[in-house]
């Protein structure tokens, strides 16, 4: 198991933490918490050098010993190999590298010759005071057995000049020079006790309170529930907090027992940075996943982190939608793990790095940084999976664009925004996996473009209005990408067309466009409203293997006051079930260009041309209708469903009698594609309950029927 933590931590330790895992396969983290300010990795497996038992002399190591202290050649220990749980890492803002080169070793200890009696007396003393032990037992029980030092509800300092308690204004001082960026490596030998209790590492703080140090909350470098640690794991902390007279403190909370094989402190080169210049993020991975009280967990590994202050939260529903439920099967990126306050503290995917963004610039900086691996090598496809937590708010900008784009009686708008620059988060070519999660109350006036990418999840984002339709400003665009899940988002603009817009059709572009060779896409539980163009499925009538093989599922989406393209399908196969359509002002599911659509258990009302083929030049597609609320032409009046024939234009066909046009061969073709498990609810349940759970801010709630 490996834990990596690479950014500044700003949140306090959360007591009695439980993890809510929302894995696509029910994977989860462990009960408890992982928290750091710097960076930490835990690896089940061996380090490339410096494991317990490997020794060499190093004159730069601080202190003197009465016996061999297992010094490590710094140049041989710049990387940590990953165990079965994988390399779990997390960073945010200006993230540090988990594989930074080592310039020299400051301190190393393997406790090989220490005993419970000598550890705090003669085993190893300060280089500046031979009568003072390098190690001080501040509280609790510390024992030595076969080179393993065990902390049982204990606090032990390393390098402190005395045992005097630290305060907010003073410390006893220390002889560890931590004025330069450094890396701390701790090899875990054993773990036992209460799973939710924590193992912690502090700098210049020998108390149990983060505030009892001149460094305040920055003094806590690392904290992890022991459920996230295991024998054989390695914790690595990369930081720059400290001075030329610092000390370290190791602590296990009461009820937690952690055995340590060795500890090493190395300089990593570079210059020190202040705590204010680093963003907060952490992560831990555990190969021993445990279940939480609200979501079942499998044996999958999880990456967890403690969220920084101001990162927002999500009120997670008791019954959640945790899988795509359609064609999409994103294999990387992961789903969020929450603490008891609804803050995202990690990912269900071991190896995913959790980062926090408060703006469009933050989002793009995080993705740019993720295209460089820890050795500095460019990796266009992504150096690691990402989970980005977005907490920005652009309500004011959205409201302005809505007001500027609302027509008067003559279809004039105060100010069109179609010529605006397109503000976007480009995920082009990123196939390592990205999950984007919006926190409750966040909002965005920018789009997300998924091009030549894969393994992408977009959830709980509120994306509104946008500008730049002349620049193809879609809210979400998916081109030539696979395994993309768009879930529980709110997407909206203004359902009208302003005079003066290009082609009288570009006041706004689409909510969700899926085009070209997009494969295995699921669009679920979204609330899409007040939009003229909801979405394309295909960009051209022309056939060809690059365009007509799309497989897309649309389920549990709530469409209200929308004009058209629900979707506009060209070629391929779509599965449309358990959606609520309330207020279609032009046309709904438009099945064109030989596309095949299975449309079942949906609710349609107040709709013009809800299922149709129009503007087609190559031959209409075909639909297979079953178990929708409308089943015959007699139902049209009941549900206020109306039809037109597009002025008699060629290539127009309506489903006004609610009969299928699909042949038996078409139905077989659909069955051959729709091989995933699903259990559609009755259409009446969709009508009664879907609006309560679809969209952002609904805690990823799943539809339930009484």
UniProtKB/TrEMBL annotation:
Residues 362-610 form the Pectate lyase domain. The keyword Signal applies. Residues 1-26 form the signal peptide. Pfam families: Pectate_lyase_4. Keywords: Carbohydrate metabolism, Lyase, Polysaccharide degradation, Secreted, Signal. PANTHER family: PECTATE LYASE 18-RELATED, PECTATE LYASE 21-RELATED. This is Pectate lyase domain-containing protein.
């Amino acid at each position: 198991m490996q834990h990596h933590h690479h950014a500044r931590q700003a949140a306090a330790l959360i007591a009695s933490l439980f993890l809510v895992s929302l894995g696509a396969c029910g994977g989860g983290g462990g009960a408890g918490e992982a928290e750091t300010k710097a960076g930490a990795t835990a690896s089940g497996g061996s380090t490339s050098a410096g494991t317990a038992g490997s020794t060499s002399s190093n004159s730069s190591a601080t202190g003197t010993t009465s016996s061999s202290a297992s010094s490590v050649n710094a140049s041989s220990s710049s990387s940590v190999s990953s165990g079965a749980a994988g390399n779990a890492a997390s960073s945010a803002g200006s993230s540090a590298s988990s594989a930074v080169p080592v310039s020299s070793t400051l301190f190393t200890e393997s406790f090989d010759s220490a005993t419970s009696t000598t550890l705090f007396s003669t085993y190893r003393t300060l280089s500046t005071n031979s009568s003072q032990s390098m190690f001080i037992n501040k509280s609790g029980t510390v024992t030595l057995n076969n080179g393993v030092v065990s902390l049982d509800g204990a606090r032990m300092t390393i390098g402190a000049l005395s045992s005097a308690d630290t305060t907010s204004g003073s410390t006893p001082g220390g002889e560890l020079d931590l004025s330069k960026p450094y890396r701390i490596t701790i090899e875990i030998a054993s773990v036992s006790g209460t799973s939710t209790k924590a193992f912690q590492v502090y700098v210049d703080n020998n108390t149990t309170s983060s505030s009892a140090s001149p460094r305040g909350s920055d003094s806590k470098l690392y904290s992890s529930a022991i459920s996230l640690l295991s024998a054989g794991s390695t914790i690595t902390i990369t930081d720059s907090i400290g001075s030329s007279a610092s000390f370290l403190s190791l602590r296990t909370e009461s009820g937690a027992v952690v055995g340590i094989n060795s500890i090493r402190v190395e300089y990593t080169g570079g210059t020190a940075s202040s705590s204010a210049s680093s963003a907060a993020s952490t992560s831990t991975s555990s190969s021993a996943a445990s279940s939480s009280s609200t979501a079942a967990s499998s044996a999958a590994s999880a990456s967890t982190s403690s969220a920084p202050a101001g990162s927002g939260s999500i009120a997670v529903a008791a019954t959640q939608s945790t899988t795509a439920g359609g064609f999409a099967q994103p294999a990387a990126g992961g789903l969020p793990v929450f603490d008891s306050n609804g803050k995202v503290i990690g990912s269900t995917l071991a190896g995913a790095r959790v980062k926090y963004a408060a703006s469009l610039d933050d989002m793009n900086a995080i993705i740019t940084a993720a295209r460089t691996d820890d050795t500095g090598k460019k990796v266009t496809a992504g150096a690691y999976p990402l989970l980005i937590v977005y907490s920005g708010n652009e309500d004011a900008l959205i409201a302005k664009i809505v007001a500027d784009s609302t027509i008067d009686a003559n279809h004039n708008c105060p100010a069109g925004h179609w010529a605006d620059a397109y503000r976007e988060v480009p995920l082009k070519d990123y196939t390592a996996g990205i999950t984007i999660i919006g926190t409750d109350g966040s909002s965005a006036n920018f789009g997300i473009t998924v091009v030549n990418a894969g393994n992408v999840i977009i959830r709980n984002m509120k994306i509104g209005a946008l500008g730049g339709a002349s620049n193809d400003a879609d809210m979400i665009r998916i081109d030539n990408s696979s395994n993309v899940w768009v879930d529980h988002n709110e997407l909206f603009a203004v359902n009208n067309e302003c005079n003066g817009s290009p082609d009288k059709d570009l006041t706004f572009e689409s909510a969700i466009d899926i085009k070209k060779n997009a494969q295995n896409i699921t669009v679920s539980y979204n609330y899409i409203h007040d939009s003229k163009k909801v979405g394309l499925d295909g960009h051209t009538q022309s056939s060809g293997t690059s365009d007509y093989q799309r497989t897309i599922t649309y389920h549990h989406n709530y469409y209200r006051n929308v004009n058209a393209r629900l979707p506009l399908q060209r070629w391929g196969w779509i599965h449309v079930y358990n959606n609520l359509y309330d207020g279609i002002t032009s046309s709904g599911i438009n099945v064109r260009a030989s596309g095949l659509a299975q449309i079942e258990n949906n609710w349609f009302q107040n709709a013009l041309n809800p299922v149709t083929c129009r503007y087609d030049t190559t031959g209409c597609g075909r639909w297979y209708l079953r178990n929708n609320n409308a089943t015959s032409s007699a139902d049209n009046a009941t549900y206020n469903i109306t039809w037109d024939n597009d002025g008699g234009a060629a290539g127009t066909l309506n489903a006004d009698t609610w009969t299928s046009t699909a042949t038996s061969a078409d139905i077989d073709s659909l069955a051959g594609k729709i091989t995933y498990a699903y259990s559609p609810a009755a259409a009446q349940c969709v009508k009664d309950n879907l609006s309560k759970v679809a969209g952002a801010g609904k805690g990823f709630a799943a539809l339930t029927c009484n």
